[in-house]
Specification:
three-stranded antiparallel sheet; 4 domains; 56% helix; 307 residues; Cyclin A, domain 1; mainly alpha; disordered N terminus
């Protein structure tokens, strides 16, 4: 019978001597489940994926050679000095010995491992709340680990550097997400994240051969147009306004591209009778209403397409 796992030991894990879901079952472990690759039948969840203990010579030979003893960021076990494995309090006779073992165990882990033990769960939390793709999260982890290896964490919090690493990874992949979105989820001041991002930009990204993409106002037009649920006609008019203003001599150097995009979207919504308020657009673009009105005046001055 063709199968990924020929021995009876695997079939015993799923509660059957032999799978019988289809004519030629082909079992595999996919995303925490035992699944037949031919018919798609899901047998059961994999409840324990840790390496099995081997006692006899036969079990040692049958055991997988690639089973890892340690996790990617350090040992699996943690020795505590006050309780045993069952959670009961230790007697004073053994308490001092286990305290000594716990102290030795803590000394065996490096600061790099301790840092990642805290950072990895936080990165997963931020990824889930921000809706970031896995590829971006992987690059953010690469950037952060390089930051830790270069010892740039001195005097900086883990969450600040994680937020800056995520922002840098988004820029590398060309995803137009604002830094305000990240700081709102991470609950960190924007000034600290920008300062850490500039440090990563100078010290870390060249080491990893990564380059960030600088977004033009047109990239933000697409983002704001979708979030405001405006028509494609409004989007095209906003893009034409920006292009016409640049052709007429409008200098966008030193001006926030989000503010220019927000102003173009505001003018376009007025032309298409899909009115959106200045407060609504400025809140979405994370710019002040004063900035929005100033950019609107600039675009109206240089672009003749507006009413």
């Amino acid at each position: 019978m063709p199968s990924h796992f020929e021995d009876d030991e695997f079939f015993g894990d799923i509660g059957e001597e032999e799978p019988s879901c289809c004519d030629s079952p082909k079992l595999s472990q996919e995303d925490g489940f035992y699944v037949c690759l031919n018919c798609g039948f899901v047998y059961s969840r994999i409840l324990d994926d840790s390496p099995r203990r081997a006692f006899t010579q036969e079990e040692i030979q049958k055991r997988k050679s690639n089973e890892r003893v340690y996790s990617p960021i350090g040992p699996r076990t943690i020795i505590r000095g006050s309780r045993d494995a069952r959670g009961t309090l230790l007697s004073p006779k053994y308490k001092s010995k286990f305290n000594r073992l716990a102290k030795i165990h803590r000394s065996l882990t490096t600061s790099y491992e301790r840092n990642l033990w805290i950072a990895l769960p936080n990165l997963q939390r931020l990824q889930k709340r921000l809706g970031i793709p896995d590829t971006v999260a992987e690059d953010a982890l690469r950037i952060y680990t390089q930051t830790v290896k270069k010892k740039l964490t001195m005097g900086r919090s883990i969450d600040t550097l994680l937020s800056a690493s995520i922002f840098a990874a988004l820029r590398v992949h060309g995803i137009p997400r604002t830094v305000e979105e990240i700081t709102k989820v991470a609950q960190i001041p924007k000034k600290k994240v920008i300062k850490s991002y500039r440090l990563i930009l100078m010290e870390v990204l060249p080491k990893l051969n990564l380059k960030v993409q600088h977004f033009s106002p047109i990239r933000y037009v697409d983002k704001f147009n979708d979030e405001l649920k405006l028509s494609m006609q409004c989007r095209n008019i906003a893009v034409k306004i920006i292009e016409k203003a640049k052709e007429s001599g409008f200098n966008s150097a030193g001006k926030d591209p989000k503010g220019i995009a927000a102003a173009a979207i505001y003018i376009g919504s007025k032309i298409c009778n899909e009115n959106r308020t200045q407060k609504e657009i400025s809140k979405l673009a994370r710019v002040t209403e004063v900035t929005l009105r100033m950019r609107v005046k600039d675009l109206q001055k240089y672009a003749s397409i507006v009413e």
